[in-house]
Amino acid sequence: MNAPAASILVVDDEPDLRTLYELTLLREGYRVETASSMQEARQQLKDLRFDAVITDMRLPDGFGMELLRDLRDQQRRERCVVMTAYGSAENAVEALRSGAFDYLTKPVDLKQFRSVVASAVQGTGGVPVPRSSRNAGRTGSTAEPVGTGGAMDRIVGESPAIRNVKQRIAKVARSMAPVLIHGESGTGKELVAQALHASSQRAEGPLIAVNCGAIPENLLEAEFFGARKGSYTGASQDRDGYFQAARGGTLFLDEIGDLPLAMQSKLLRAIQERSVRPLGSTQEETVDVRIVSATHRDLAADVLSGRFRQDLYYRLNVIEIVIPPLRERREDLPALCAALLTRIAHESGIQPPMLTERALNTIASYPLPGNVRELENLLHRAVALTDGEELHVECAPSTAEAFGNRPLRPASPAPAAPPPSGTPATSGPAPCTPLPSDLQAWLDQQEREILVRALREANFNRTATAARLGISLRQIRYRIARLNIAAPNDNDVHDDLA
Question: pTM of this prediction?
């Protein structure tokens, strides 16, 4: 037996457009009802249940946002798509933040219209997945085949901070709103992106993960948007980019803050227009993707300094998910260690060693600024060096010395000249300091500690601090903003030159 057709309510006060939308949807096999005002729409919603509501932003007796809020307050199941005038980015962002499933820009492209509506009704009433999703699934080299529970279960921990992250994932996954994941390196930003994808109506489509900082600048456009045969040296055939590969699914842009400004402009246009132009092509291609991005940088500070486009920032940061660093959820260490040990042992084909209280206390004494990634590396090393059934974690004092929580020291004196040939060395072996897994984060931490100490010694007078460190007042202000250093009574912090 065929599943019943999805039911859609179209709300628009322009008769010609309302008829056009209705005919388009009827041809796609949907059941369609229409309304020309807020009053008519509310009456239709009172009498009937729908799978999706498509509403114009401006109506004769109100705004589409009011209808959206009605659906949210009544906890209705209908997903709402809002149509807004071209260029009204703030309206689109407001609609997404208020719970809209997606938005369309007028004049509406009918191909995009059909795609967005198909995504909106998917999963409600047994409607098949969009055609683009079925096709895109074939690109599956980086698609996540994992189910919702599996992806969410890999975010280990029951601390309040992690529970908040999981609740936020569950709340926003069904929307098409762009999500910005913010967290320090090693906190698990890609795991959150995988959970968002697996919990969404796009779970059957591909999840394409892109490390924006790992692509050479001269290849960015071809990698993102695809290229046509002969468009550049070595392009022997047409090939798709990340946007085309992610059709019907999710495009995860990791370390989005590393994109150069020129590419940020092109990415913004692709997100706004929902279309891309492959390198060497004169035609644009419509792409149906959900954008999830991630960064360890302070993008708001990057906007202020001119390193990141403000309009792109607002497009990406419709919904923000902040992942807490490991130091803020130390109570999750036992569960994290157990889960990581199980995985490491499985990959190594051995029985997982027993996690003793002594080993756990040793691990808990480490600062672990590299977060879960550093914890995993530490456990890998411990498993490799453990003999017997119990896990033995070697004390590594150099870890804390290398990564933080150390006092500011004066510059070291110049090293002594090496002893003459044949003279035995009298000092002990040089300590083996592990290299940082994230150099920029480590440098930022050192810079922050120096600035905080210097500010305190100058009673938070920025001019005096700048003079003490040999930099300009403008530079000290920039660094304070970039590193998010808060001062006591910050509004009262004074500069001699302010």
Answer: 0.61
